[in-house]
Amino acid sequence: MTVDHDARRLDLAGTREFTLPGAGPPRRERLASYGRDWLCGLWLEAVAPLRSNGQHGVALAAVGSLARGDGGPLSDVDLVLIHDGRSLSTADVTALADRVWYPIWDAGVRLDHSVRTLSESRAVASADLSAAVGMLDLVVLAGDPVVVAGVRASVAHDWRGNARRRFPELRESLQARHQRHGSLVDSAQPQLKEGRGGLRDMAILRSLAAAWLTDRPHGGVDEAYGQLLDVRDALHVVTGRGRDRLGPEDLDGVAALLGHQDQDALLTVVVQAARTIDFALDGTMRRAGQSQRARTLRVGPRRPVLRPLGYGLFEHDGEVVLGARATPRADQLLLIRAAVLSARSQLPLAPATLANLCRDVQAPDIPWSPAIRDAFVDLLATGPGLRQVWESLDLAGVILSWIPQWRAVRSRPQRNAVHRHTVDRHLVETVVQAASLSADVARPDLLLVAALLHDIGKVEGALDHAAQGAPVARDIARSMGFAERDVDLIELLVREHLSLVELATRRDIEDPATVHTLCAAVGEQREVLDLLAALTQADAIAAGPKAWTPWRASLVTALAGRGRDLLGDQQGAAGPEPTGHLDAVITAGMQDLVIGAVHVEVTSTQRGALIQIVAIDRLGLFADTAGLLDAAGVVVRTARVQTVDGVAVNRWDVECPSGELPDGPQLARSLEQLSTGHRRPHGGVRRPRRVQPLTGVSAVTRAMVVPGGSLDATVIEVRSADRPGLLRDIGMTFARCGLAVRSAHVATYAGQTLDTFYVTAAGRVPVQPPAVAQVIAALIDACDGRAG
What we know:
By secondary structure, the chain is an alpha+beta fold. The chain has four domains: 5-162, Beta Polymerase, domain 2; 182-293, no CATH class; 329-567, cca-adding enzyme, domain 2, CATH 1.10.3090; 580-783, no CATH class. It contains 29 helices and 15 strands. It has an eight-stranded antiparallel β-sheet, sandwiched between helices. Strands 3-2-1-4 form a four-stranded mixed β-sheet, with helices on both faces. A hairpin with a 2-residue loop joins strand 10 (635-644) and strand 11 (647-655). Helix 10 (251-258) packs across helix 11 (263-294) and helix 26 packs antiparallel against helix 28 (726-736). The longest helix is centred in the first third of the chain and has 37 residues, at 145-181. It is elongated and about 115 Å long. 45% of the residues are buried.
């Protein structure tokens, strides 16, 4: 009687049980048990003609999914006939193999087979990496178990002994496979087995653990693996074929069989599982590499090399780690700061550090404090390094604690020809692209937050995701503690984020009505138009090459330019604060001023410190103060510099990465020494030869005069990527040009400075136009690190 084994296996899959919780492992165990019993029966028939009845010196073994017990309803069978080379003649072994293989072929079951001795198995494993990884799962099905145990033990011993030598080969093989089959996260037709984040990657994880190079993650990774196995099983049942590629035509059937509401719900599960496995594999490969380096010969004691990064964090062995003295419970900012440093340096957070920070740090209070909000925006401004860090935080559950609304778009697919990423990955990619455009706008922080939230309305059932996402973005921005005007702008940008590109590509950009429509969409505000133009470009580039063609780019640029022409130059500088409130500050420092001393007050804040300085105004005071603060290792977030009747009042809001507040008396003494021409206090100023921005991205420096900004001073606005020593270099440039800084408004948004300076020439008069051009050129050189 002929048995249809494929039909039998499909029946055992139990289609009615697919939606039951935990049904996957029992289903696969039934299938594995059926396969083993069938093959054992074939073995008994095959060895019957042999004198030994196949009990000595020969055995049938399995590798692959049958060996692991996680095969699908129509998975192929991977078998190895192992013999000792002595008990049976070559003719008997060949005949035995034929008696096993042919019934399997006749049954229509796909078979991968081989016949090997112990020495041949070791040789094959040594020459073929995939064979070596596969034989680590070798299990006996029938026959002499001693023969199989010998092969498995020998192959495993060789694998451990040669793992460090073969690790580069393993890494190259992994990269080549991922290149061939793509990623399950981004593919329109995910390859469940061979793709990045797929089933095969779990075999690599197990092989690294078997090599004793490192342990592998469990828990969520094993759960993700089970979810992909369930999808694979359902795909076999729906298609009636042992396929591993999930095609568009299969989605409805697989989703229905697994009990998902629709195709998007199914793909969300696939993507999330793949992200979990991919992230685990990336970390495990990294730790295996660290283990390999640790075994190399070292001269001297084996002490960990820690490079301080600030805020109690260090770089160690290519990762960001938490210092021994750091106390996460005492610093709510520490997790965000660790993420910022990780992204800027493009070094991953060490798994133990991430676990400790996530366990001990609570979600920010609502609304967020300015310090937490600014640190979060700094994270968004880190550029390409954001991708990996955001992924680690997301998989650790941190992002949902910051932004609960993120859940609706997390791993949500976008099945169209334009978008190449899931919704959440597209949002992060848009932020990365927007970071490179920060110099084009006055408020890069609003640009980055709008980029992060512009598609937050792409949820199930949304008809107009821009309109639906705008109020959600408003709620999120308000919870982050933005001022009400900023909240309004973020909401407007999310609501109108498609307006510019749609007007440019669907309307006549030469028609004045089109330009007026665009200006109305941005509330007749030049600043908002600049933000919308940058957001449009970042959104399109992040979507993919089909969304930002040269034709589309030219239309968008042209229409935005016409809008700017219509709105005119609305640029204005931040005016100086009224000076009446400074009287009390000056009075407090009067006792020092009358004897020619400098008055300095340092007050601790959540962000770091507020430093208030009162001194007799002089040429170069701003540069000297900025230089001393840089030498103290603090990071300036905002500053207000004002002069009243020859007295300079400076307020500096700074972060203290070292954890120590600046020494106020020492700062005062240093300023007093510098006022007498003594330059030694600047000896400790860090001035890197090649200046690196703090954001992780490079931006074009811009310096410009604000027309009509003041009647009795020249107003200059400077936009540049923030870096150590930047304010000192700007101040020194003014001093070299003989200009006094009468007042200044210094602010840093998302790693991008927006600094406004009121400067005067000798006689306290505005700078003459011929000299202004030289000052602007000198400022750009100074910001870019080219000043002498």
